[in-house]
Design goal:
Strand order of the largest sheet: 8-7-9-6-12-13-14
Number of strands: 23
Strand content: 15-25%
Largest sheet: 7 strands, mixed
Radius of gyration: 22 Å
Number of helices: 15
Oligomer: single chain
Helix content: 25-40%
Structural class: alpha/beta
Shape: globular
Distance between the termini: 59 Å
């Protein structure tokens, strides 16, 4: 089958493309911007890429068009596809119907931690020889790719609550029909498509409805928002984590013992930081148990887990200043990331928090009132406001530490570097490329006298 993918250079759709090639399909694709590293990765596996959405691409005569959710009505190629009545579907639906339907699907859902938890679980299953497939919205450093078909029964997928496509406004994860589902946490987010928290809870309950009675729901016991979802109805086996009624941890965030119903089942000693990652680990231990993997082996695997690119990833060290890259963009994630870094550093050095409010929710200003508290533990705050329509300077005005708010990237870099000194950590947080600020700061640090 020849598949032509619209929006192929996004992490998810690029992963779909890779999986389709592994299944033996001919794959081509297009996107508004075709550039490395995704373009290079796709071309290396034989995928022809086209820049732009020229309607003449229908002349490729594929058997099926797979549409990414970056595509909207008015897109010239999409309009041509619809005018001609050509067959099309969404990426999540294609994955659900062509891959997950014959695998033991483990879906990882939640407002935060989906990418890391999916990567952890895929690695744990790989470690014990189950050769899982996976599709994740990042690049696990243990695999160096965002998607793999695998030849074992398990397939681990990051289960996003964002909408599927312009023609299917349900959450992506309703297409996956998992046998094991992790419900990691639930907060209000994606204000561009959800009016309130209740709307997101409805989508999560749609996911719960798709898990069979023989399946397993792995649920964060600390989340009242998830309990409210389950109160609407639950028909599957259920286990909790991060609470005494199920899997819980005792010890430091980087060295902790895992317990199940008060009995020790394993120990994790790793380089990851933060209470959120310890919680993620508990979810992985619980989910892997549904596939018969002993907890102590999962703990062994997690102890050598390398992490995920752009999740507390060290980008470089210059003159004693360490530059970290992190995907945090929601206030809760920002607060957790800073707290984890503070605990890791102890009393040595300062945290310079560099933040870009880039997500649709942050651009709308829905979460701006929570930002000051989220950033409070940093020693200095630098906020990049290019394209922002609300007043970040006013929002952050009451923070006690030094604050720099600017819409000029070069000015941001100069300000960060000017305030840095040996033993400092520069913690860069954004869900986008941030204009290459990481490398700009490293270069400027190197030139600093």
């Amino acid at each position: 089958m020849h598949i032509h993918i619209l929006g192929i250079c996004g992490t998810f759709m690029g992963g779909v493309a890779r999986l389709a090639v592994c299944l033996g399909h001919q794959v081509t694709g297009c996107d508004a911007n075709v550039y490395p590293p995704m373009s290079t990765q796709l071309e290396q596996i034989g995928i022809r890429l086209i820049e732009g959405f020229d309607p003449d691409q229908v002349l490729l005569k594929p058997d099926l068009f797979v549409i990414g959710n970056v595509v909207r009505r008015g897109n010239p190629l999409m309009e041509k596809i619809m005018d001609l009545g050509l067959p099309y579907t969404s990426g999540p639906q294609w994955v659900g119907e062509h891959i997950l339907n014959v695998r033991h699907c483990i879906a990882v859902a939640g407002t935060h931690g989906k990418t890391t938890t999916t990567s952890m679980l895929a690695w744990a299953l790989e470690y014990v020889g189950l050769n899982p497939g996976f599709l994740v919205g990042g690049v696990p450093q243990d695999f160096r790719c965002s998607a793999r078909l695998g030849n074992g029964s398990p397939f681990v997928i990051e289960a996003d609550e964002y909408d599927t496509a312009f023609f299917d406004k349900r959450s992506k994860f309703v297409h996956y029909r998992p046998r094991t589902a992790i419900l990691n946490n639930l907060e209000f987010d994606h204000a561009d498509i959800f009016p309130d928290l209740a709307a997101i809870q409805t989508q999560f309950h749609h996911l719960v409805r798709t898990v069979p009675a023989s399946g397993l729901l792995v649920v964060n016991g600390q989340q009242d928002t998830l309990n409210a979802v389950l109160e609407r109805g639950s028909w599957s086996n259920l286990t909790y984590f991060d609470c005494a009624e199920g899997y819980f941890a005792q010890g430091d965030e980087q060295d902790f013992e895992v317990f199940y119903h008060q009995k020790s089942v394993g120990r994790v000693q790793w380089q990851l930081s933060g209470a959120h990652n310890r919680s993620n680990a508990l979810a992985v231990v619980a989910a892997a148990s549904h596939l018969g993997v002993p907890a102590h082996l999962v703990c062994e695997a997690l102890s050598v887990f390398k992490g995920v690119q752009r999740r507390m990833q060290v980008r470089g060290v210059v003159h004693g200043v360490t530059v970290y890259d992190d995907f945090a963009h929601h206030p809760t994630a920002i607060a957790t990331t800073i707290a984890g870094m503070r605990k890791r550093m102890g009393a040595v050095g300062r945290i310079l928090a560099v933040f870009e409010p880039r997500s649709n929710t942050m651009k709308l200003g829905v979460m701006r009132a929570a930002l000051p508290q989220a950033l409070r533990e940093a020693d200095a705050v630098f906020c990049y406001t290019h394209g922002l329509e609300w007043n970040a300077e006013q929002t952050l005005a009451d923070l006690p530490q030094p604050v720099c708010v600017t819409d000029e990237l070069d000015n941001l870099v100069r300000s960060v570097v000017a305030q840095s000194r040996p033993d400092d950590v520069i913690l860069i947080m954004s869900n986008g490329g941030f204009g290459g600020v990481h490398q700009k700061i490293l270069q400027a640090l190197g030139a600093k006298v």
